[in-house]
Amino acid sequence: MISVVLAEDMHMVRGALVALLDIETDIEIVAEVDSGNDILPTVFAHRPDVAVIDIDLPGMDGLTAAAEVHEKLPSCRTLILTSLGQPGNLRRALEAQVSGFLLKDAPPSKLSDAIRRIYAGERVIDPELALDAWSARENPLTARETEVLRLAAEGAEAGDIAGRLFLSVGTVRNYLTTIVIKLGARNRVDALRIAREQGWL
């Protein structure tokens, strides 16, 4: 029996996934969570074979959580299940050492098949998405610039960002100007759009 922890914040989607996997005689969902912050404690408590994780979760995002699972409990393999199919997300997922990356609009049979293959030690990635990621533009932003832009995306002003990152307001403004230039954007809002579309946030 393959034990699975499921992390999905949308109740209807999570219910559908549970119903889908309950049909399978060799897969058992041992726990469900709706926040990224609950993934690691739940994985430690249940020690599942596979964690199926949505990227866009409240609290810690799914990719950060997947990287922590890989680092702290490598026996648990991770499958990212998402509607965000941007190449940048796949690159981030591969950097986080995930075992699989599957889009939510894939046929239902693909999910159970992916779980079995990941459990067997394979890596499962949508081939079209892998091809897109191969030819996609590299993220030109540094880790710090990405962090500044992520906070700006949450609606934080320069002063708030400066306080949270222990920087001066002038330094934050310089980062934001550099980000706009690097992305070839018209302004900060356009830079956010570009970064989101590429899956860099």
TrEMBL record:
Keyword DNA-binding attributed: yes
Listed Gene3D superfamilies: 3.40.50.2300
InterPro entries linked: CheY-like_superfamily (IPR011006), Sig_transdc_resp-reg_C-effctor (IPR016032), Sig_transdc_resp-reg_receiver (IPR001789), Tscrpt_reg_LuxR_C (IPR000792), WalR-like (IPR039420)
Alphabetized UniProt keyword annotations: DNA-binding, Phosphoprotein
Signal peptide range in chain numbering: none
Domain HTH luxR-type: 134-199
Pfam family, one: Response_reg
Domain annotation Response regulatory: ranges: 3-119
Positions where 4-aspartylphosphate occurs in the chain: 54
Name of the protein in question: Response regulator transcription factor
